[in-house]
Amino acid sequence: MGPFTLPIASSANWTTGFTTTRVDVLAVLSESRKLLPVIPLISNMAGSTSRDLKRPAARRRSRGQTMTEFALVSPVLLLVLFGILESGLLLFSVGTARFAAGEAARQEAESGNAANADSFSIQVVRGTALGTTNLAQVQHIDVYKLQQQADGTLTVVPGTLDSYNLDGSARGAIPWPSAARDVKNGESDFLGVTIYYRYIWKTGLFLFAGPLNLNQSFAIRLEPQTY
Questions:
Q1: What dihedral do alpha carbons 98, 100, 106, 107 form, nearest 10°?
Q2: How far does CA 135 lie from the centroid of its chain?
Q3: Under DSSP, is residue 221 helix (H, G, I), strand (E, B) or coil?
Q4: Which domain holds residue 173?
Q5: Strands 20-21 and 154-156: what pairing?
Q6: pLDDT in tens, 183-205
Q7: pLDDT tens for residues 143-179?
Q8: Is 193 a domain residue?
């Protein structure tokens, strides 16, 4: 079946009759469909123009909201961060003091009644992180005699406390010199070492509380050197 034709009157041939002109309807419809996507495109362009006009105001509102939220959250965030940092530094200082006291006591046990036993122990403290960093300030180091009680506890023997500065200098009289310490097998003396130190807050978060005065002790028995 051929394409559909419509009779169209021609003014040029009015007197002689009608001429028939063939019109392809499918081609006309195809050309019409090509124009259909253009109409919504033009509509979208008009809508996007109105949205573009509204967009700068929305962006300004979003930026203002973000700045307000940051201003509210940042103090709390900084407080938490400084608290974590300060706690880490404090715990590090306490740990190094515990280590230094233990190392000094072990050195005393090895030195026994040597004349320079206390000097060696103070030198050990200076070589630890407590003595080589400024995180904490060592006030003084005490070496003293301990006595074991019947229940196994150790108590300080009065009048046996030797106190030294971190540089090894004595802070007064030395009532219990290292040469007088008992290192006989089965009856060697018990010895204690206490390090007094001060921690100063680094971040300023707790400056109102003032510095912390702390101490760390360690007890040990002198190694026997005579049998």
A1: -170
A2: 17
A3: strand
A4: 72-221
A5: unpaired
A6: 999 899 999 999 999 999 888 77
A7: 999 999 999 999 999 999 999 999 999 999 999 999 9
A8: yes
